[in-house]
Amino acid sequence: MNVTVFGTGYVGLVQGAVLANAGHNVVCVDVDSHKIERLKEGFIPIYEPGLESLVKENYSEGRLDFTTDSSQAVTHGDIQFIAVGTPPDEDGSADLKYVLAVAETIAQHMDRHQIIIDKSTVPVGTADKVKARIADTLAARGRSDLTFDVVSNPEFLKEGSAVADSQKPDRIVIGTDSEHAEEVMRELYAPFNRIHEKIIVMDVRSAELTKYAANCMLATKISFMNEMANLAERLGADIEMVRQGIGSDPRIGYHFIYPGVGYGGSCFPKDVQALIRTADGIDFDAKVLKAVEARNYEQKTTLFQKIQSHYGDELKGKTFALWGLAFKPNTDDMREAPSRVLMEALWQAGAKVQAYDPEAMEETQRIYGSRDDLSLCGTKEAALKGADALIIVTEWKSFRAPDFELIKQQLSLPIIFDGRNLYEPKRMSKKGITYYSVGRL
Ligand code: UDX
Q1: Does any ligand 1 atom lie closer than 6 A to the CB of residue 267?
Q2: Which residues bind substrate (predicted)?
């Protein structure tokens, strides 16, 4: 099938590469000509396991191409994916200007029936807006004779395993009221639907809400667990025991009940906020979502609070080794990363940071530039040198079994503030390390 994908960000690029790899002929379009040139040379702007080889292979075999020419791209596709960004605007609602601009571009250039698919995470009702924009543009061209379907097909990939998630999706949600569009979508996804039925067809609005409901449910689990961890700390209970105790109930499950430093990334914070705004817009008070957001906001400050209460007013002039900058492992993404809230609070208090992350060093440099109170270190060991304590913010695998003797040698005092509960508190105390965790005894 000939497929056009607008947007070469996380969602668009992964979707394009994975569809090409399944045998479709895919053209990815972006307005950023530099990015398109670099993609053709095999340079992938994001770190995502497996993506580079997938892009290079499919590009060299001619199933995947990149262009800035939207007219040519629209003509190529029998279906058109919209996978551009929906950044939050000032009040936290999803800004649809890029999505609607692509809808207009498609309508300007289409010359046959088209299926337009919303892949970006967009508020309920967006498909109607896309439909209206296309109809208006076609009318202005004097081509109201051209027919089209708008489908909602939300993306559920996780950063760090985006390729694997897209190649083996656990569900494929298709929102449409058109039998023809359903048939085409089934054909498109047939290579991914072999072993058991993963396609769930529903009306457009339900598909749009499904994406938000999924992310908000996961965010709720995390905020709930963070609240339990904070309670455990104050009640003298061990959240790790509580986690195992509740996770064993299949209705609760073990996934997404790890307490920590709050959720970050490009999806959860943005989507929870956007759904709150959608609810506000129809005078519905989304009480649960507001609490989820408020807990997360506070959770991002808890590590700093622990550091502050340990050192009292003596933070000025202290140096901290910081392990983990990305919002989660296996990505270089720093969007809404808890490490940023922490570093900024430490700097504000006059402390210095010696940071290490396996992937997000360049991104940190890009965001903060050069500053006297931040050293980016080449290894996790180098970050420890002469620091007053170690702080762990991201649970990269390489942090799970460090050389504790070396940590003790390098730090001026053996103190670890762990925002991810990587180590056993009892073991730490046996080793003579002062260990702060999230809700552990
Ligand atoms: C998320 C959804 O998982 C994905 O389905 C959706 O399409 C996009 O948003 P992503 O943002 O890549 O994916 O990251 P995810 O692995 O879900 O983690 C989100 C955040 O939650 C991270 O900051 C992570 O540290 C935090 N988290 C996750 C916890 O604090 N505890 C947990 O138990 C799980």
Answers
A1: yes
A2: 156-159, 211, 256-260, 264, 328
Distance 158 CA to ligand 1 centre (A): 7
Q: How many CA atoms lie within 13 A of 176 on its CB side?
A: 26
Q: What is the mean pLDDT of the chain?
A: 97
H helical segments located in 236-359:
239-247, 268-281, 287-299, 302-311, 338-348
- The CB of 264 under 6 Å from ligand 1? The reply is yes
Q: What band does 93 get if pLDDT is binned at 50, 70 and 90? A: confident
CA-wise closest residue to 29 among 11, 42, 13, 53 = 13
CB pairs under 8 A, 24+ apart, for 50-57?
50/163, 50/164, 51/13, 51/14, 51/17, 51/162, 51/163, 54/17, 54/18, 54/21, 54/163, 55/13, 55/17, 57/21
ipTM: 0.93
Report yes or no: 25 and 3 within 8 Å, Cβ to Cβ. Answer: yes
Per-domain boundaries in the chain: 2-202, 212-298, 300-436
What backbone torsions phi and psi does residue 55 show, to the nearest 5 degrees? -65, -50
Catalytic residue ranges = 267
Question: Distance between CA 138 and CA 146 in Å, rounded?
Answer: 8
Assign a CATH topology to domain 2-202.
Answer: Rossmann fold (3.40.50)
Average pLDDT over every residue of 32-53: 94
Confidence (pLDDT) at 219:
98
State which amino acid sits at residue 249: D
Residue 297 CA to chain centroid, in angstroms? 17
Give the CATH architecture of domain 212-298. Orthogonal Bundle (1.10)
- At residue 47 the predicted structure's pLDDT band, cuts being 50, 70 and 90, is confident
CA distance 63 to 1: 10
Residue 318, CB-side half-sphere exposure with 13 Å CA sphere: 26
Is 264 annotated among the ligand-binding residues?
Answer: yes
Structure tokens at 355: 């940071």
**Are 130 and 99 a contacting pair, CB within 8 Å?**
yes
201: left (phi over 0), alpha (psi -120 to 50) or beta: beta
For residue 108, report the distance from its CA to the centre of ligand 1, in Å: 37
On whether 259 is known to bind a ligand per the annotation, the reply is: yes
Q: Which CATH class is domain 300-436?
A: alpha beta
Q: What is the pLDDT of residues 427-436, one digit of tens each?
A: 999 999 999 9
